[in-house]
Amino acid sequence: MKPLPGDHRHRLLITGDELRELKRHTGAMAEAFGLDRKINNYKDSRPITLYRWNLECLMDVINLALKDERDYPNRSSSGYLALKRLGDRLHNEYESAYGHEESPPALVSKKATGRTLMTPSAGGSPVMQFEPRTTLGQGSASGGSGRFDSLPSGWVHGRHLSAPPS
Question: Which of 21, 29, 68, 113 could bridge to 83 as Cys pair (CB 3.0-4.6 Å)?
Fold first, then answer.
């Protein structure tokens, strides 16, 4: 994900125990647009530049790690305390920059495997509903391979063969 000119850059110095504990949890950042690689390659010699989506991802990963008793059975260990301290710093940075903003009440996104609809529930938090849809390659009722069974005859790449090129 590339930042736009108006995106706020956060420069944070992460060192010592905080950095070591954060690097232990980069596997949970697999879908974070290279943030896992950025954290693994980071040296604590100068501040790291993070954007809003990076802060959100790091806060989520840290919160999940701190709640997992398999990672931190002893809540008074130095690793747990270092990660908690980093999580608090990231949360304070995020709140100081974005605390005044409200999240949108409803989000709709379409995925390749279905439609995800997020709507507020009675309590105000979003509820996710997933509606799967048939895609090419899943087979068909006719017992074919499914590879081309879903394509209407005469259609290639979203255009009918008899249609003039646009």
Answer: 21
